[in-house]
Amino acid sequence: MARALKWAAGLVAVLLVAGGGYYWRFVREIPVRVATPAQNVSVRVFGIGTIEAQVVSKVGFQIAGKLISIEADQGDFVKAGALLAKLDDEAQRSKLEKSEAARRQAAANLAKAQAQRERAEITYQQKKSVNARRQTLAGRGSVSQEAAEEAQAAEEIALGDVKVIEADTRVAAVLQDDANAQRRIDAVVLAQHELRAPFDARVVARTKELGGIANAGEAVFTLIAPDSIWVKAYVDEALAGGLEIGQAAVVRLRSEPDRLFETEVVRIDQENDRLTEERRVYVRCRVCNPQHQLRYLGEQAEVEIVKKVIPSGLFVPLKYIDGYDGRSGIVWTLQDGRLARQHVQLGERLIDARIQIVSDPKGQVVIDDRADLRPGRAARPQADGP
Description:
Elements (H helix, E strand, L loop, with lengths): L1 H26 L2 E5 L3 E16 L2 E4 L5 E6 L6 E2 L4 E5 L2 H51 L4 H47 L2 E3 L4 E6 L6 E2 L6 E4 L4 E8 L11 E6 L6 E9 L9 E8 L14 E18 L10 E8 L2 E12 L4 E4 L6 E2 L13 E6 L2
Parallel strand pairs: 1-20
Antiparallel strand pairs: 2-11, 2-15, 3-10, 4-6, 4-9, 5-8, 6-7, 8-10, 11-14, 12-13, 12-15, 13-14, 15-18, 16-17, 16-19, 17-18
Helix pairs in contact: 2-3
């Protein structure tokens, strides 16, 4: 009898412990964290990119020659028209002097031909007057017919001389034009011995040294327009919806992770990268000193673009959403003190992995990852979620 009572007492104790454990584990009311609406939430898109320059020019000489002067180096800021480098131009200067002499000679020959033409025209007019008088006198019988014929021949010869000299004058004019053109060519070639900046620029590279030979068309300097520097970022096309030119953005450089640069979107490529499925977006500094840190081309940068600001909304971390398909998912909710599963519609996704719930959930959305959640269980809100 005593033994039976002991077994009964033991069984009761086990049942009490099991019941208490079951109650503690599955029945008792539990505290859970719930989400609360957030205010003025920035919907941002994250992208990785590099610092580039929109205007890049590799400049060099149009002719080959030996470098006798280099006036700029990488990092220098140069104004448009500033001398960058110069080739040995002694031979070309001699050619220019020779063409200048030829030009002056052609001008003198033209002046001489014009003077001869004027003289020939005067002679022709004199012969023409004499012939007119002789012909009149010959008609009256005052002079012989032979004298009249000689006067006529003299007039025709003078006219021929005028035509010949006029032709010589035209030839001299053409030769002068040719000499002028040759001088201009030699002057242009001489100017090509100097390399000048095509625009206000910063020198980012120099490939030649003093005394070296520069070949025609070979780049000697690489120039960029300082105000054309931008960050080319790649944004996942799944998150690129709503991006527009003019939207604000912040840039964080790899060399200065604790510093942010205020920029704005200035270009969005009209064609996505088919391989990486990304959209190329370009942002440019709003107010930057030419010496700012964005001057180092090729440096990696992180870009956050502010697509819009939501005045008020309910945002839930992605890890608390089951069956997420990009548009909807299932969350735990607390309705009238009981837990339940609910299907909700989702909206904007933030870069901190929170997602906006756009449908109106019944009750409060639970953001708790405890393992003892089950539909119908009693629960109470514990505190605001993150």
